[in-house]
Amino acid sequence: MFMGASTQQGKRIAEESRAIVRNLIQDQVKGLSPEEVDIVERIVHSTADPEYAKLVSFHSNFVNSALKSLKNNDDILTDINMVKSGITQYNGHVNCFIKNDEVVKIAKEFKITRAAAAIQHASDIGFKGIIVIGNAPTALFKCIELFEKGILNVKAIVGVPVGFVAATESKETLMNTDIPSIITEGPKGGTPVAVASINSLIGHLNK
After folding, report:
1. What's the rounded Cα separation, in Å, for the pair 63 and 82?
2. Can you name the residues that pair with 183 across neighbouring β-strands?
3. What would the pLDDT profile of 63-95 be if each residue is shown by its tens digit?
4. Mind listing the pLDDT tens digit for each residue in 88-144?
């Protein structure tokens, strides 16, 4: 399967699309590793927006840390179920706790968003792995808070929340931590970007 295509026609379309993307962004991805280039290409392909080639920023150890975690079949935690649904071909567990009863209780008790409460719950039950956030900056801020307190065992973060309120700030804060991460600068991001990033890495496991 290539880029989600399961038929010859679908594979041909995906390959042609990737070739177009590669030509459009070749100047912007110079100096990136092959794995990083693949992530950027997938993001541009998924969004049909070449500007992402200028907006994606990588922590220097993101790819290595994320691939090591995936090879260990560590858990993947997502901020919303839509992101979870888009993650394919992974042998480990992909979790989203946004609708968990305990998460609802935590959110009410501490007056925080359910997205942030879901990160707290994951930490409470011993989460270990990669966190993928495409929509909720409050979840990203909670990841950073718990990591800096030494109580969240996160190996890498895909931190690409979309929006005009707190999204940019949460991503800038993430890049100033020691957490291996990928972000999109500014308000752009979202589910397609998050899914493209993690699926690109998962695809490298079988190569």
Report:
1. 23
2. 57, 159
3. 999 999 999 999 999 999 999 999 989 999 999
4. 899 999 999 999 999 999 999 999 999 999 999 999 999 999 999 999 999 999 999
Is-catalytic flag, 121?
no
Topology of domain 51-204, CATH: Rossmann fold (3.40.50)
**C-alpha to C-alpha distance for 40 and 46, rounded to whole angstroms:** 10
Q: Is the dihedral of CA 100, 136, 80, 68 positive or negative?
A: negative
Contact 72, 91 (CB under 8 A): no
The domain locations on the chain are 51-204
pLDDT band at 207 (very low <50, low <70, confident <90, very high): low
- The answer to whether the CB of 198 falls within 8 A of the CB of 39 is no
Grouping H, G, I as helix, E, B as strand and the rest as coil, residue 91 is coil
118 three-state secondary structure: helix
User: Distance between CA atoms of 196 and 194, rounded to whole angstroms?
Assistant: 6
Say how far apart CA 186 and CA 34 lie, in whole Å: 24
**Alpha helices (runs of H) in the chain, residue ranges in sequence order:** 8-25, 34-47, 52-55, 62-71, 81-86, 101-110, 114-124, 137-148, 167-175, 191-204
The catalytic residue among 45, 59, 93, 121 is 45
Helix (H, G, I), strand (E, B) or coil at 142: helix
- Rg, Å, the chain Cα set: 16
Phi first, then psi: what are they for 36, rounded to 5°?
Answer: -65, -40
